[in-house]
Write a structure and sequence with these properties.
heterotrimer; A: mainly alpha; Four Helix Bundle (Hemerythrin (Met), subunit A); 5 helices; elongated; C: alpha+beta; Immunoglobulin-like; five-stranded mixed β-sheet; three-stranded mixed β-sheet; binds protoporphyrin IX containing FE; binds copper (II) ion
Chain lengths: ~200, ~600, ~270
């Protein structure tokens, strides 16, 4: 069942209701399945970290404090993402909320970039030591996935600017699921980074 | 109340223009054929590489005309060097496992028939689908490019064990850009397969037509579905592993490289990595990959058998549950590839047990196929012969698994030709038989023309007898202790075994040559074959309810309604001894 | 064609099994104390797997021979017992096989890996590198000098990277390209990889163990017959992999002492 109410429009001759709801549901399944695969990838990376740590030659590094600020930004963006969903239901202010979410997402990525610069200034590059390798891999992979979400937000924003009717609510819902997952994943990574690296 | 907007309807207009119709097509049928075509190119390439390997093993000094044109350093004057043997080995293994066994039975046939069998117009995400194929095709090109660079293809085998694969060109030829290309190719391949698996899962879960409950899906639909679940997990692990390998190679990190290595008299500037970590990550993917190859073949074979036997399998449910448990167990056994790797010896025992346990569902499957034949009326066609051949191969390859599942025996047999014999039978040849069976079976649906049955059966006999002649002796060689991945056999006892090797090589040349009968049949029938009816084999599943070849939107804009499972054979139906899934009639008696 | 399939398959099955039954291809003699357990396990497995192989192939051959291409419209029927029978058979057949082989058979594994070497076992270090094995004996002091990878210098035969100038323990270490051992004496082989992964495989010893870079492993065994045996590398290690071998010389105690004396005098 598609959980959302939908604007009435002429139904194309081919479409039948179950079929369309099938596609709505498929895209939701798709998101969850994708999330599952991403979890699996990061689980593999985590186990690599644990094995690597077990093999000694491990010295802790101080993680850049800007990461905590970035965390706040990302969490905030989850809130604004929820606001955009509400706005869509009320058909008011969607553009603004999606725009804000997008900006916050971009500032998170920019913040991560600053963190890398900060590490580099300390002489910590990707290959310097195991901790820095994992730090860059974790943050880099997360940022890459987040950029995927940002790309979708840009697309959605284009849709909204083109008029509310052309924004399918389930699209926004799915993006929100992914976006929240990115936030959750980041919290997990931050935990791993701050306790292990 | 369900109401909808027109935009939500995913249906795409019939594509126009060559590029959109055949190249960047969003149609799952075209994409399925593209995957199949890619696999066909890969399998013939891989086969020719295996010819070269076999040739070199028994006639090491023979000149192969023209080979020096492809690689001057690898085959100076046409004579294969030991390192080029390893390049051929690596490329053969990689092409076969990734680009043949994953592409054809799963991505190829799956793409073509899964949506049709569940009554859908297309995959859930046609754009992802197109991207997934082109990512895979790019991966193929990147891999094959390795043949044409000065460095040559990598020599570290399809398993690419670190640190050999991680330290770069100091360790030998092909380990510079050759290995880089390999790692990039496999990384791309993972992305393609992840997109594909995601698509398969969402499609199966949500796009089934009215009446198509999960339990009414044909067995091969189930097999593709289970495979995509396995693939999602497996490739999601291989992808980061490849990423780490690439970083070790190109960015100087040390995930898989420990300190103190002296290679080519140079102390390597790495520290603290773990070579076993690569093995764990690789085999965590690698073992399930074996099932990614074989499960779709099992599905196809069940589908062909049930149609050929004219009676249902003893229990479709049991087959499905067995496949699910195989998929599940396949994630708990990866360590059986690492018994002598220096892993904790207690882990070996822990891995041995689920490995032995997995033979239970595998045996159940075999017994169900076997038992179902009893009392049947088997129609012998090229398709059913290959399906029966699959069962035979699966048994032959399966029983040798018993040896290798036991760590104590593996001490002796590990890395011998016994292993080569085992995996070729159970994964390589068996899955190839599944692909061939599916090809003869579905070709009429896919092209609207029949394949030549005589040539098909001729092809079967060559292939069936030939593969036994090639791979059975491998087991004997392994029992004596003949080591694998050797470019020449200089061990003391080898002269006595060379006649066996010569026999195998000759068998391989003949069997390989017979594959050109198939290729000819495929191409010739595509253009000149007898026109096919909609349902040439009296099948029950939905693909047989639509024209051959199917129109671009499969069901012509209608939605089939399903009343039965796909096993209504041996009954009194309107059209004969079967009832189609979308026919409202009920079985009389 | 169905009949032909049955006949061909039956022939294939029997021909495949024949070389095994006729013992054409058997493992080379076992010269270890633990090997007979492995061989027994292998023989038991061969019997069970061989029977399963023949049974299944011949059944398949017979069923296809008997039940193919009958008259169109012939009555079809199911095997009595149906799927339940098959599932039960699988559990019983394979279940007992797993118990018999899998569980009981782990003893052979335990013999190799869970019995620690006796304290008087002779320690020898083995180093695998592209594409040669080297062996090091601790010398009179019974101690191995430390390794310095940066000191490795093949040109000057410093294969292990020893530094006798600074390490007293290294001075009397004996390095050899062959593994000479006394018969009936337990040997503990300390395994060290110089560059990439390799493996130590002696068929007659029923020993195979990888060398893993960065992970120093050990195996132990007791050779029981004098003679010269091949040590081969079984882990793909590069272009000379096929050519990477050494010899295990199992000597009588006298010969071994003589060999040792000569090695010491060569230093
Ligand atoms: C014409 C049929 C084939 C022949 C004659 C053949 C022959 C060979 C030979 C001679 C080797 C090298 C053995 C060694 O030196 O260790 C090999 C390796 C291999 N083959 Fe095949 N093969 C054939 C088909 C296949 C198929 C269909 C597959 C698909 C699974 C396959 C997968 C592999 C793999 C994975 C390896 C291991 C590569 C490695 O060690 O890295 N082969 N094959
Ligand atoms: Cu496996
Ligand atoms: Cu080697």
């Amino acid at each position: 069942m598609a959980a959302t109410t939908v604007v009435t429009s002429p139904i194309s001759q081919i479409a039948d209701a179950t079929r369309v709801s099938g596609h709505v549901e498929a895209s939701r399944s798709g998101i969850w399945v994708g999330i599952f695969a991403i979890i699996m990838s990061f689980a593999a990376l985590t186990s690599a970290l644990l094995v690597r740590q077990g093999s000694g030659e491990w010295s802790h590094i101080v993680i850049p404090s800007i990461l905590y600020a970035n965390t706040l930004i990302l969490l905030l963006s989850s809130v604004t993402m929820e606001m955009s969903r509400r706005a869509l239901a009320k058909s008011a202010g969607v553009t603004a909320w999606i725009g804000i979410t997008l900006l916050l997402g971009l500032s998170f990525v920019a913040g991560q970039y600053l963190a890398w610069r900060h590490l580099a200034a300390q002489g910590l590059y990707l290959a310097t030591n195991p901790n820095s390798s994992f730090l860059y891999v974790f943050t880099g992979m997360h940022a890459l996935h987040l950029l995927g979400g940002i790309a979708v937000l840009v697309y959605l924003l284009g849709r909204v600017i083109g008029g509310y009717t052309s924004l399918r609510p389930h699209l926004l819902d799915n993006t929100a699921v992914y976006w929240h997952f990115m936030g959750g994943l980041w919290l997990y990574l931050l935990f791993v980074i701050s306790t292990r690296l | 109340m369900e109401q909808t907007q027109p935009q939500s309807v995913h249906v795409h207009a019939p594509p126009e223009g060559f590029l959109w119709k055949y190249v960047f097509s969003l149609d799952h049928k075209v994409i399925g054929k593209q995957y199949y075509g890619l696999a066909l190119i890969a399998v013939f390439t891989g086969m020719i590489l295996s010819w070269l390997m076999r040739f070199h093993l028994v006639w090491p000094n023979a000149k192969i005309v023209g080979l020096d044109l492809i690689s001057k350093s690898g085959a100076p004057g046409g004579v294969i060097t030991p390192e080029y043997y390893l390049s051929l080995l690596t490329m053969h293994g990689t092409l076969m496992v990734f680009f043949v066994l994953t592409n054809a039975p799963f991505a190829g046939f799956g793409n073509y028939f899964l949506p049709i069998q569940i009554g859908a117009e297309d995959m859930a995400f046609p754009r992802f689908n197109m991207m997934s194929f082109w990512t895979t095709a790019a991966a193929f090109l990147v891999l094959v490019l390795a043949f044409f660079i000065p460095d040559g293809p990598p020599i570290s085998g399809w398993t690419a064990y670190a640190p050999l694969s991680a330290v770069g060109s100091d360790a030998g030829p092909g380990l510079g850009w050759g290995q880089n290309l390999w790692a990039i190719s496999i990384g791309l391949f993972c992305i393609g397969q992840l997109l594909g698996s995601l698509n398969f899962i969402a499609t199966t879960l949500d796009l089934r037509t009215k009446g198509m409950t999960l339990m009414r899906m044909p067995i091969c639909t189930w097999a593709w579905f289970i495979t995509s679940c396995i693939g999602l997990l497996a490739f999601a692990v291989l992808l980061p592993a490849c990423l780490l390998l690439i970083l070790d190679r190109m960015a100087g990190t040390s995930f898989f490289i420990p300190s103190g290595l002296v290679i080519s008299d140079r102390l390597q500037n790495h520290a603290g990595g773990s070579p076993l970590l690569w093995q764990h990550l690789f085999w965590f993917f690698g073992h399930p990959e074996v099932y990614i190859a074989i499960l779709p073949a099992m599905g196809i074979v069940s589908h062909v058998l049930v149609t050929s036997m004219r009676k249902p399998l003893l229990s479709a449910k049991v087959i499905i549950y067995s496949m699910i448990s195989i998929g599940f167990l396949s994630y708990m056994v990866w360590g059986h590839h690492m018994f002598v790797s220096g892993m904790n010896p207690f882990s070996s025992l822990l891995f041995s047990f689920p490995t032995l346990t997995i033979t239970i569902p595998a045996t159940i499957l075999t017994l169900i196929w076997l038992g179902s034949l009893y009392g049947a009326n088997i129609r012998i066609t090229a398709a059913s012969l290959f399906a029966l051949g699959f069962v035979s191969m699966f048994v032959s390859g399966g029983v040798t698994g018993f040896f290798l599942a036991q760590p104590s025996i593996d001490i002796y047999l590990h890395a011998t030709y016994f292993v080569v014999g085992h995996f070729h039978m159970v994964m390589g040849v068996a899955a190839i038989f599944g692909i061939l069976s599916g090809t003869y079976f579905w070709f009429p649906k896919m092209t609207g023309r029949m394949m030549n049955e005589t040539l098909g059966q001729l092809h079967f006999w060559f292939t069936f007898i030939g593969t036994y002649c090639i791979f059975m002796p491998f087991h004997y060689l392994g029992l004596v202790g003949n080591v694998r991945r050797y470019a020449s056999f200089i061990d003391d006892f080898m002269p006595a075994l060379m006649p066996v090797h010569r026999f195998v090589t000759i068998a391989a040349l003949i069997t390989g040559a017979a594959q050109f009968i198939f290729l000819y049949n495929l191409i010739h029938s595509r253009f000149f074959g007898k026109p096919a009816t909609d349902n040439p084999w009296d099948g029950t599943s939905l693909e047989w309810s639509i024209p051959s070849p199917p129109p671009w939107n499969n069901f012509g804009g209608k939605h089939p309604v399903v009343y039965h499972d796909a096993h209504q054979y041996g009954v009194k139906g309107e059209k004969g001894d079967f009832i189609m899934q979308d026919s409202p009639e009920t079985a009389a008696g | 064609m169905g009949k032909l399939f049955g006949v061909v398959l039956a022939i294939i099955a029997i021909l495949s099994a024949y070389p095994i039954v006729a013992h054409w291809y058997v493992q080379p003699v076992d010269i270890s104390t633990h090997g007979h357990a492995i061989d027994e396990q292998l023989a038991d497995t061969m019997a069970e797997a061989g029977l399963s192989f023949l049974g299944a192939q011949l059944l398949l051959a017979f069923f296809v021979w008997r039940f193919s291409q009958r008259k169109p419209g012939s009555r079809v029927w199911n095997i009595p017992g149906g799927a339940t029978l098959m599932v039960a058979a699988a559990f019983i057949l394979v279940g007992t096989e797993i118990l018999a082989l899998g569980v009981l058979g782990q003893k052979a594994w335990a013999n190799v890996y869970f019995t620690p070497p006796k304290p008087d076992a002779m320690q020898i270090q083995s180093q695998a590198g592209q594409f040669a094995f080297y062996f090091r004996y601790p010398g009179v002091d019974g101690k191995f000098g430390p390794l310095h990878p940066d000191k490795i210098d093949e040109g000057n035969s410093n294969f292990f990277g020893l530094d006798p100038a600074n390490d007293v323990e290294s001075r009397d270490d004996i390095v050899s390209a062959e593994l000479d051992v006394p018969v009936n004496r337990e040997i503990q082989l300390l395994m060290h990889a110089k560059d990439v992964g390799h493996s130590f495989y002696v068929r007659e010893l029923r020993i195979q163990q990888d060398f893993v870079p960065g992970l120093d492993l050990a195996v132990h065994f007791t050779p029981t017959q004098t003679g010269k045996y091949e040590i081969v590398c079984t882990q793909l290690c590069g272009l000379g992999h096929y050519n990477m071998k050494a010899y295990l010389n199992v000597l009588s105690q006298e010969d071994f002492d003589k060999w040792m004396k000569q090695k010491i005098s060569e230093q």
